[in-house]
Amino acid sequence: MGSSSSSRNKIPNAQELMRQTGFSSAHLLRLHDRFESLDRDNRGYLSPDDFEALGGLAMNPIGGRIIEAFFSSGQDTVDFSSFVRILAHFRPTDRNRNKEGTQQELPSSRTRKLKFAFQLYDLDRDGKISREELLQVLRAMLGLQVTEEQLQSIAERAIQEADLDKDDAISFDEFKKSLEKMDIDTKMSVSFLK
Amino acid sequence: MPCFVIGASCPAVFHFSQRFTTVVPESCMLILLGLVLGGVVLIANKKQLYQLEPSLFFLFLLPTIVGDAGYFMPARLFFDNLGAILTYAVVGTLWNAFCTGFSLYAAKLLGFIDEHVQAEMLDFLLFGALISAVDPVAVLAVFEEVHVNETLFIIVFGESLVNDAVTVVLYKVYISFVEVGAENVQTADYFKGVASFLIVSIGGTMVGLIFAVILGFITRFTKKVRIIEPLLVFLMVYLAYLTAELFSLSAILSMTFCGIGANKYVEANISQKSRTTVKYTMKTLASIAETIIFIFLGISAVDKSKWAWDTGLVSCTLVFILIFRAVGVVGQTWVLNRFRLVPLEKIDQVVMSYGGLRGAVAFALVVLLDGEQVKAKDYFVATTIVVVFFTVMFQGLTIKPLVKWLKVPRATNRKPTINEEIHERAFDHILTAVEDIAGLQGYHHWRDKWEQFDKNYLSKLLLRKSVYRKSELWEAYQKINIRDAISVIDQGGNVLTSARLSLPSMASRASFPEVTNVTNYLRENGSGVCLDLQVIDNIPGAKVEEDMETHHVLAGNLYKPRRRYQSHYSRHFMPLGEQERQDREVFQRNMRSRMETFKSTRYKRHKKERSLKKVRRISHRNNRRDSLSLCSDPVVVPVETEDKAEHSDPEKDEDVGITFIARKAETPKQRPKSGCQIPLLPPPPPAPPSPPPAPSSPTSEDSHLPWKGSLGSPPPCVSLEATKIIPVDLQQAWNQSISSLESISSPPAPAEPIHPRVSALSRLGGPRPASYTPPGSAAGSTFSIGPQVSQGSFLFPDKKKEEEEEEEDVEGEWLRRCSRSCLP
Questions:
Q1: What crossing angle do the helices spanning B136-146 and B396-406 adopt, rounded to 10°?
Q2: Shortest CA distance to B81 belongs to which of B137, B138, B162, B140?
């Protein structure tokens, strides 16, 4: 899978994307191929139905939210660079990169990964996961045999644990803190094998 | 035998001085003690009475330790790192064996080694093979004191277990070569050697897995004979070992995989008391065995008649094994890091090379050598003793300061918080989704596939029916509750008052001993055969994490504490596979939410506000109820679990249908003939206590009940009947459970007609196409519930009506859109 210059030209702003996301050119090409195969009508952008056609996502309890995460701020199309940027969150964290302080800005940094996950919970984007939002996620993940009551207790419990300023919601910092012992790098990383 | 007495009392004696044991690992002490004892015996009798007999070792001592290790091995951690483990075990051991063997031979040629040592190339290779294997007993013994982080531990420990296959093969191959004579070895024999390696390792694993299945299966039926459960466990695990040994396969591998495989199912099936028994007995036996091994090592060392000393050999061996281990580890890590998500750091590598301890296995193997065939046996024995002593004592003593000095990240002795469990599960889902989107067949994909297979076939086969329908996240939550309650009580608090309030924070929880469940992973801490109560009772709950597969929703028998069992179906009435139902549920939920997002945002926001209000109202009521239930829950659970399990057992299922049984009954029809009918039931007696409507209108997405009528004609195969879920014959049981419910003095719980989602489970009857990849058809069929819904009398007629209007116009549009996109 050689990356000839002609195929790289297919990808607009390839250099820019590589710099911002940390993907290598081989990765980008692969993702571009994938993008094109998802984009059945060859429109140059993806819309929700393209994602929904993926069978696996329909079986995923939070598949809907993840799809939504691709469509930022009310748009209903995703172009290639947004596609790549979102996926870049799941690159393994480069522990060794530290040049010019770009480490923090990479989407695959730990904070950015957590932020991404946080936004999956926080649907109304108010910066906090409220009890209802947590309930929704729990309900999606927990299946039908769990009763409402149980769900409520679980959510209650979770909020109790994490909520430090007692505002009955989990802010991003509280979220981060509650997960500080978790190995986010492993849990939120996919190896985009060539 | 006196050794048992000594073995039992030693740990107790040693731990008297806390400071002492933090510095000196137990194994060192034991060896020293052995030396002393051996000296005593020698002086008394002028000859050695006791020896570490290989047969005793391989038949009794080693299986105990390995069995304990395998049974309590954290499976998920093990499989996560399986690549690394296999690499180190196979490649690493081979590398070590060959290099050591060849270098020793070279050393002999060069004259470092004395002439007395009559060994040829093959002998040295043989010796290299048996001295190069990392020993599980020693690793356990030393690492349990050290507490490195779990990844590191599992890699070293896993390696020590898996390299048994390599060692066994090499050993046998070389022995046979030696017997035949170096000249007679042909090339074909080398290939046979390689082939036999494959056979030994894979065969050993297979044997172990077979026994694991048998064990799981048997424990499924031991409900009436609880008392023999622990015995069964021990027997089967030991049988796995013996069987593999019988066929000359890798016995350690067999036992390890038997333990790993059976653990999940056995722990779920057997009773609480049995679990405790199994755990404590295994730990005790393993501890005794380890003690005996080390003492005998000490004793055997003193017996001069058995060995002969050669400085050159000893020193060369020591040097070589250290060097080659280090080189091997570094090399392999470099390769592995290209594939691992989380690379192994330099520090890890140092610990790994330093932690490659040799132990009693090598000693037993060398004693097993035939002195006639291998002339240099005595020298080898002496060398092995020195090597083992050196690694266990010197390296054991110094590894702790080394770790501290290098600041190796240590194991955290804590259980996951509920936040972590939830989010970890969420991350799993996210990663699976990302892999789907990016078109990768990543690790999660395979793990999902395995989990699907497990849920569909294995769990059904091996798990007791009452067990395999629980939701694991709920179980996790239960465990955390129990822990809390116990710790609160321990602190002298009053459960009732404090349960609701300040539950102890996660940090402090770890220090409280618990008497609870099962499924503990001591290995996470590296604390294997230590009888320290504290250690044993710290249960990380890793198992729960591994099992939580919430996108494979399990039907029914949720272990709602001391209330009732809820199950959708009995086994007989489950026409479709579990997986299908689960997929359908998730799928429907997703479809519903997609539809909702499709609606214009203003509707969404509007509805959300409304439902938010409702939720607040409801959560209020729930909170009150929950506070009481939380109190009663934890305390009551341990006691009642057993009984509850008993009498609700034979899944004659009090199918307290979790359902929205709000329907007026039509004539209860029997199960699908055309495959499209769904039995109906008269609505439950108004018994369902207290706030019937209460917690059932959850939030936005669930609030809107399935679509009503006015959609296009549903696809033909869809049921046109209502959406009853409780099969007829189970209604009896349901009624019973309702009445028993009421008799329980705890706060009235909604009899669970509360899941509107479940009402969407209309499509019970169909022998429908199993897969959902044409979402279009499924989506279309879901809508068919619509007409039926309108027939019934809902619990929330008012609410529904509001939704209805909004949804009507949008649905058609959404349908069209869906079908368009889902056509491929």
A1: 50
A2: B162
The pLDDT mean for chain B works out to 64
The model's pTM: 0.56
Considering CB atoms only, which of B438, B622, B701 is closest to A136? B701
The reply to whether B690 touches chain A by the CB within 8 Å rule is: no
Q: Which two tokens stand for residue B612?
A: 């938010």
The H or E element spanning position A171 is strand A169-171
pLDDT digits (tens, 9 = 90+) for B161-178: 888 878 888 888 888 877
CA distance B795 to B691: 11
Of A48, A140, A190, the CB nearest to B435: A190
Residues β-bridged to residue A169: A130
Cα separation of B130 and B125, whole Å?
A: 9
pLDDT in tens, B468-524: 666 555 566 666 666 667 766 766 655 444 444 333 433 333 333 333 332 233 333
Q: Name the CATH code of domain A107-193 (choices 3.40.50.920, 1.10.238.10, 3.40.190.10, 3.20.20.80).
A: 1.10.238.10
CATH fit for domain B1-406, picks 1.20.1530.20, 1.10.287.1080, 3.30.1780.10, 3.30.360.10: 1.20.1530.20
Query: Would you state the pLDDT for residue A125?
Result: 80
Specify which residues A46 forms β-bridges with.
Answer: A78
pLDDT confidence of residue B340? 78
Identify all chain B residues contacting A162, using CB atoms and an 8 Å cutoff: 419
> Cβ of A149 and B436 within 8 Å?
no
- A22/chain B closest Cα distance in angstroms: 15
Nearest CA-CA partner of B151 in B542, B548, B547: B542
Residue keyed to tokens 């349908």: B815
Q: Which of B659, B651, B473 is nearest to B552 (CA)?
A: B473
Contacts of B424 in chain A (CB under 8 A): 182, 187
Q: What is the pLDDT of residue A121?
A: 85
Contacts of B615 in chain A (CB under 8 A): 132, 135
Distances (CA, A) of A101 to A73, A87, A97, A167: 28, 22, 9, 34
- List of chain B residues whose C-beta atoms are within 8 Å of the C-beta of residue A66: 429-430, 433-434, 437
In this prediction, residue B813 has a pLDDT band, given cuts at 50, 70 and 90, of low
pLDDT at B435: 78
Which chain B residue's Cα is nearest to A174? B419
pLDDT in tens, B622-667: 444 444 433 333 333 333 333 333 333 333 333 333 333 333 333 4
Q: Which of residues 378-417 of B touch A (CB under 8 A)?
A: 412, 414, 417
Indicate whether B544 pLDDT > 50: no
